[in-house]
Specification:
287 residues; alpha/beta; 4-stranded antiparallel beta sheet; 12 strands; globular
Amino acid sequence: MARARVEASGPSARLSDGSIASIVRSGFTNGWELEVAGTPQSHVDLDDPTHLHFEYVARMGAVIDRLRMPGQPLTAVHLGAGALTIPRYIEATRPGSRQQVIELEPELVNLVREHLPFPRGASIRVRIGDAREGLSRLPAGLVGNVDLLVSDVYSGSQTPAHLTTIEFYTAAMRLLAPDGVLLVNVADGKGLAFARRQVATVRAVLPEVIVLAEVQTLKGRRFGNLVIAASPVPLPTEWLPRLMAAGPHPAKVAQGAELDEFVRGARVATDADATPSPRPAASVFER
């Protein structure tokens, strides 16, 4: 396994919007964290790529573990690179997977490549560009053949508005295999107005949807991350006990009538009226 090449002070790079991306040693566990403008974006443990430290990433990993047969290679597309935590996880747990990543910031990719090297021999292709525009530039052979599509795009601490709309999700879903799965990371706070619109928007494009989150986050009592999992076909009901057991705890999986109530009154987001995700208070990231 490649070792991180990180100086004690932590390497950094200036991104196109003037913000600073930096790699710092994790203060809580093994590994390293990528921060952008002071916001933690990714955690990577090069010695153990299956170690998913951030709770929402662990929930994504629990869904990914349910796809296909255990260890079977996947075809995956990732919108937003960060430090490539999920692509590394897939490479470790499903060797031979083919993965494409679209990332807007070339300097961020260069920073991560140099100081948190990718696994040797991994089939991970990183393409530079806007996530939405990049969908149309992916190889034609991916259309209708992607097992997993992950949307986890942030500009600083917010998801850009144009990556939250029904037009965006309609274009993205063309990539999915008939039983492929879309995973979306949504960050929201009290009242969950943004998250409710995102769930309503995804459900307008893909009929089968579940939401995974920490209990208090799903109740709208604290700022946090919710993971939307969606597919053209029903997600196997036998997933649910395993997803709950996988944690992190206390875990909640919302589906069916509960999700109907969750989105009641929420408008589908369109290119004409979408907004970025809410900016979290600085206290959310206090250590």
